[in-house]
Design goal:
The complex is a heterodimer of chains A (about 160) and B (about 450). Chain A is an alpha+beta fold and about 160 residues long. Chain A is about 45% helix and about 10% strand. Chain A folds into two domains: about 60 residues, NADH-quinone oxidoreductase subunit E (Arc Repressor Mutant, subunit A); about 80 residues, Glutaredoxin (3-Layer(aba) Sandwich). The longest helix of chain B is centred in the last third of the chain and has 25 residues. Chain B is globular. Classes of the chains: A alpha+beta (about 160), B alpha/beta (about 450).
């Protein structure tokens, strides 16, 4: 995995946000970029590439990548359903939504469908408590979930995947 | 009619963008602030009585006055937008719909504190809000409110948005600083406080989004006028994010004089509880604060009306009171199971513990495990005392307040709903069936007049 010229310019722009010599601050933003570039997860190769870009030791990158829940350290599906299950979502039926997704897609928590399209990743509070139950899908929130809405989201993802192939 | 200082124009069309925001009085506080000295601005914030809106409620002006100013060392303002306390989504609302209010507050505050490079650290999941903020920053820059020599004052300021990557602990200010430095979000031992050695060991102030937005009306109206709103040491307005079993979940601005009962049942705010269900309990200030049963929620132990402000919500201490916290207000109706709800919060804190301190790393896991056993009908009576014992040994024994935040919900649940825990032990089959219907718990149920 390598960044394009355009991405490398973005890296420069990010590093310039911090004082001279404090480029390690760019690590978290760069790991987001690397994950996007690498099909939604951080391989050792991707992490080593970021380490090289920022002139850090690989271990400095691994210890950060393993700390934050948004970094995936193994391959994931094209669409990750991150369903919140903390208190406020729970009292509004998030458990039922998770069960429904499991049965509909035939996967358990943390698993990916055989076609590589969907991963179910239960999440803790995502700050959408008033619009529960909800899930994060890519960089968007899908709120006020019902079984019908879940069906529609799955269909939408399948359609998008078919168009992109 | 309630006083609105932050959300006055939130429904105005196009308020997300510069033109509409400016037309409705936006950036006036910057013009005013630039005619003042930085110390005068700090003085106004002190006079306003503004308390940190992130949860701790520490006086903002005092926090600002602690900032060290050694010669030749740059200082930084960091905006804490890592909103992650379950039940809290007010900062998200503010940033998503009125981003310029935050940018305006940041410019004034950066000028007051002498920060030429100010950072907004936003939780990674709010990815689309990063774009909204960056657009607002660009607009502000285009119109000369940011950049070099702003409005000819000689003051330079840049605002950068930094995305986190999923860690509740990064809402703790020293963990946030570590994360902003590109490290794991492990809280630092204090002292030194960030005001002396913060970001890159430079003097730093970390303030919540709502706190920094509140600087705008404070400068516009003056600290003294701002302090006249509210009661006692709860001055100004507060954003509340209401959720759980209510008819109208959402973000509301209150002036801290209204009662809890009015907030829950009036149509102006939460609009009561769906399907005519009765009120069982409430977590009034984000998941870390003690849960209160309905009787103690609406009236204090002394029988006084409980108000939505710092003093009244904490009246009675933890024995019979709670906290204003972050303003994440979660209502539970009569069908909700306190054991199950507490289990979900215990799982949250276990997931979010950074692992640095053993009482929190191990204790949160033990609490989750025991609560899971109780909820799924595998608990013993002695587990309840064991839970109590564990939470007591976490509280106060960790570097940062996450330990306390994990302990308090468990303690309060046992304190006020012990019989519900016992019911789970005595009725293992029913608790396994996820029978939330614990209407046997008659005492705290409130029926509105």
């Amino acid at each position: 995995m390598k960044f394009s010229e355009e991405k490398l310019n973005k890296v420069k722009e990010i590093v310039a946000r911090y004082p001279e010599g404090k480029h390690k601050s760019a690590l978290i933003p760069l790991l987001h970029m690397a994950q996007d570039e690498n099909g939604g997860w951080l391989s050792t190769e991707a992490m080593d590439y970021v380490a090289e870009l920022l002139q850090l030791l690989p271990i400095e990158v691994y210890e950060v990548a393993t700390f934050y829940s948004m970094y995936n350290l193994k391959p994931v599906g094209k669409y990750i359903f991150e369903v919140c299950r903390t208190g406020p979502c729970m009292v509004n039926g998030s458990d039922d939504i998770i069960e429904y997704i499991k049965s509909k897609l035939g996967i358990n928590e943390g698993e990916t469908t055989a076609d590589g399209l969907f991963t179910l990743k239960p999440a803790e509070c995502l700050g959408a408590c008033g619009y529960a139950p909800m899930m994060q899908l890519g960089s968007t929130y899908r709120e006020h979930l019902t079984k019908e809405k879940v069906d529609a989201i799955i269909e939408e993802c399948r359609r998008n995947a078919a168009i992109n192939n | 009619m309630a006083i609105k200082l932050l959300l006055e124009n939130d429904k105005v069309e196009g308020i997300r963008y510069y033109d509409a925001y400016r037309k409705h009085g936006g950036y006036r506080s910057v013009e005013k602030a630039f005619k003042m000295t930085p110390d005068e601005i700090v003085e106004e914030v002190k006079k306003s009585g503004l308390r940190g809106r992130g949860g701790a409620g520490f006086p903002t002006g005092m926090k600002w006055s602690f900032l060290a100013k050694p010669e030749g060392v740059p200082r930084h303002l960091v905006c804490n937008a890592d909103e992650s306390e379950p039940g809290t989504f007010k900062d998200r609302y503010l940033m998503e719909f009125i981003p310029h209010l935050l940018i305006e507050g940041l410019i004034v505050s950066s000028f007051a504190l002498g920060s030429n490079a100010t950072y907004i650290y936003i939780r990674g999941e709010y990815a689309w809000i990063v774009d909204i903020l960056e657009q607002a920053i660009q607009e502000a820059k285009n119109f000369g409110w940011l950049g070099k020599n702003i409005l000819g004052t000689g003051f330079d300021c840049e605002i950068y948005v930094q995305r986190g990557a999923g860690a509740y602990i990064c809402g703790e200010e020293t963990a946030l600083i570590e994360s902003l430095e590109g490290k794991r979000g492990n809280p630092r031992i204090k002292p030194p406080f960030p005001a002396i050695q913060g970001l890159w060991m430079r003097p730093t102030v970390v303030n919540n989004v709502e706190t920094l937005a509140a600087v705008v009306p404070i400068i516009n109206m003056g600290g003294e006028e701002y302090a006249k709103i509210g009661v006692g040491r709860s001055t100004g307005t507060k954003l509340l994010s209401a959720c759980g079993n209510i008819n109208k979940p959402g973000v509301y601005e209150i002036d801290m004089t209204i009662s809890v009962e009015e907030f829950i049942f009036s149509d102006e705010y939460c609009g009561g509880i769906p399907k005519g269900k009765r009120l069982k309990a409430c977590i009034p200030g984000g998941s870390s604060v003690p849960i209160l049963p309905a009787n103690l929620l609406l009236k204090t132990a002394k029988g006084e009306t409980r108000l939505m402000n710092y003093e009244s919500l904490s009246d009675g201490g933890f024995a019979t009171g709670s906290m204003m916290g972050s303003g994440g207000f979660e209502v539970l109706d009569e069908d909700q199971c306190v054991v199950r709800h507490t289990m979900s919060l215990a799982r949250f804190y276990n997931h979010e513990s950074c692992g640095q301190c053993s009482p929190c790393r191990e204790g949160t896991g033990w609490m989750y495990k025991i609560l899971k056993n109780l909820e799924y009908g595998k608990g013993k009576m002695s587990d309840i005392d064991l839970l109590w014992d564990i939470q007591r040994k976490i509280e106060g024994n960790t570097i940062c307040p996450l330990g306390d935040a994990a302990a308090w919900p468990v303690a309060a649940a046992i304190r006020h709903f012990r019989d519900e825990f016992e019911w789970h032990v005595l009725n293992p089959d029913e608790s396994q069936k996820r029978n939330y219907g614990l209407a046997h718990y008659a005492d705290p149920i409130h029926v509105p007049a």
